[in-house]
Amino acid sequence: MSFTLEHKDPGSSARAGLFQTAHGPVHTPIFMPVGTVASVKGVHQRELREEVDPDIILGNTYHLYLRPGMDILEAAGGLHAFMGWDRAILTDSGGYQVYSLSANRKIKEEGVKFKSHIDGSYHVFTPERVMELQRSIGADIIMAFDECTPYPCDYKYAERSMHMTHRWLDRCLEHLEKVPPKYGYGQSFFPIVQGSTYKDLRERSAEYIASKGAVGNAIGGLSVGEPAEEMYAMAGAVCAILPEDKPRYLMGVGTPANILENIALGVDMFDCVMPTRNARNGMLFTSEGTINIKNKKWEADFSPLDPEGRTFVDREYTRAYLRHLFAANEYLGKQIATLHNLGFYLQLVREARQKIAEGTFAAWKDKMVRQMDKRL
Amino acid sequence: MSFTLEHKDPGSSARAGLFQTAHGPVHTPIFMPVGTVASVKGVHQRELREEVDPDIILGNTYHLYLRPGMDILEAAGGLHAFMGWDRAILTDSGGYQVYSLSANRKIKEEGVKFKSHIDGSYHVFTPERVMELQRSIGADIIMAFDECTPYPCDYKYAERSMHMTHRWLDRCLEHLEKVPPKYGYGQSFFPIVQGSTYKDLRERSAEYIASKGAVGNAIGGLSVGEPAEEMYAMAGAVCAILPEDKPRYLMGVGTPANILENIALGVDMFDCVMPTRNARNGMLFTSEGTINIKNKKWEADFSPLDPEGRTFVDREYTRAYLRHLFAANEYLGKQIATLHNLGFYLQLVREARQKIAEGTFAAWKDKMVRQMDKRL
């Protein structure tokens, strides 16, 4: 569990690094495909490994807690064994899902009481409980329990919430000090910076988080509806404070352009449902721009899905065929689009890493951001 | 386009053969996975080829006519190119789908007028039109346009319908004589025996169909609700009349036991949605019996899905994991179950072929039928 900073881009704050986990190395910058409930929707683990090839994927504590539940995950020997994924896994803490439940949860100092979206049953997450859940899941990187504030959020609420997130962080750390590794390997704990879109709060939070000396640090509470410029301003302010020699994880971000811009600000790790969720709605990301494959214009386009793409779906299927699958509501369409988009996201961060190593990231990033914005 | 009878089982009427098509050899007995609308639901073409490994798959003319439509298929150069499948394809004639529409179609001597299940628009299928559709699709084996009678069916209706199916057959043949191959390769035309569950009608129909000297012959109108014993009685009576040196295709059949019993009667080719549709409902076929993977009993069963299975899903996933995917309504569960079931069906017919070659089919069939009937 150590981070090595390998390259720094001369034209931006972008960095390339290597984070070692018990389940292999994570090369940064990295995008983590989201496997909410022990599955990246519509993708076989073998395809994910061989075609998309991420060093790490993400699981959601809230969803895994409800299904399959901790008894089953413990009996299996943790999430890696349960789902058959032997590379690294990061789990979120449930803070974001609890935030999404809005009307169906109550946040107090002790923790959060919420209603299951599945059967309406009541459950309580506290910092200590969430650490135990993440120990049972056995992810390589586990996250602090935090409150993710909505956007917009009034200053007073954001400040109070930030302080509670800090107190929850201390409770997480205290709890983790008392417990040994569950499955014979260490788990890296990342605290989370909050503070909504207020620069002074973000800076105070980043200083508090940095003071904990964790092996990696995260930025939460962004990509919740604020303009991209505010997101970049907050990420930039926080990256300037978080230690340079530790990986920085911006939670829940984002579009391909968002990812490149935040890499330029010094962020190393990303996750987002966008490539997978948008794929299921027929939206493809490519280096030339986005494609809505449902459009009639692709009906008789028998060219490969993406001549630049690296996965087998890019070569083996045509746009016309994929368009047909969406028109006929065939699930294979979602499978193909998902593999394409994940392949594109991972290729993008691999290329970013390459450009950082070559010292040419900044100019490349500007060109890519312009291109990827187009609608094809 | 020729059939070679390679082996005959001494203990039954089972045979092993080889049917040559423009898209490669079809080793019989064979089960054809159903790719209704240019996709075997939830399965990538590459997986189908490499894991399930069928020599031939089936497409549905009715569905392909509605989506993507003949213009697109012709522009693509036929279904093989459109969907990226370079092995053999068989298309049905739409007779069965028209039968399924029941209230939404009108059958006359000229043909069938029906209402699309998608947008309620009206369409007409005649024998000549259906031949043209199958030429545009470009399947290697194309089927006569027939009326599939329901079960039960009164004798008078069955007899009248059979004669109309025979007249439609003649119209198909007359039409095909006039037209050249569309994509530079020949298509094999199979006529269809009808006659409901009446032995004398089935025999008269088989004699009429046999008299046409087609390269292969089919048995339709079974597996529509009649008891298995009636199905076997009809298939047996028909196989005794259809020429021995031509492949026999029993349409829409069936369970693994149905398939083995009909192989014993002299049937060579099968198709059915059962392995794929039941998979999507959580039912797995194995050599030891069937599994309802949704049952709680599999919740903590961390053994491989099917230690005897030949596809990667059998080795790489556990029963507990698959049970979880179904419980959480994750589509990957359907993908896994589908690959497993298709792998099982194809392995079953390959093993049947092997046993026929060895002359030990009959005893093996009896043992397998007993085993596969169990519920695990």
Topology, pairings included?
The structure is a homodimer of 376-residue chains.
Chain A (H helix, E strand, L loop, with lengths): L2 E6 L6 E7 L2 E5 L1 E3 L12 H8 L3 E4 L1 H6 L3 H7 L2 H5 L4 E4 L3 H6 L4 E3 L4 E4 L6 E4 L1 H11 L3 E3 L11 H24 L9 E3 L1 E2 L5 H12 L6 E3 L8 H12 L8 E3 L5 H9 L4 E3 L2 H7 L2 E4 L2 E4 L19 H5 L2 H9 L3 H28 L2 H12 L4
Parallel strand pairs in A: 4-15, 5-6, 6-10, 10-11, 12-13, 13-14, 14-15
Antiparallel strand pairs in A: 1-2, 2-3, 7-8, 8-9, 16-17
Helix pairs in contact in A: 1-14, 6-7, 7-8, 8-9, 10-14, 10-15, 11-14, 13-14, 14-15
Describe this structure in words.
The structure is a homodimer of 376-residue chains. Chain A has helices at 45-52, 61-66, 70-76, 79-83, 95-100, 127-137, 155-178, 199-210, 228-239, 256-264, 274-280, 312-316, 319-327, 331-358, 361-372; strands at residues 3-8, 15-21, 24-28, 30-32, 56-59, 88-91, 105-107, 112-115, 122-125, 141-143, 188-190, 192-193, 217-219, 248-250, 269-271, 283-286, 289-292. The radius of gyration of chain A is 20 Å and the shape is globular. The first copy, chain A, is an alpha/beta fold and 376 residues long. Chain A has a five-stranded parallel β-sheet. The mean pLDDT of chain A is 97. The longest helix of chain A is centred in the last third of the chain and has 28 residues, at 331-358. Chain A contains 15 helices and 17 strands. The interface between A and B is large, with 40 and 40 residues.
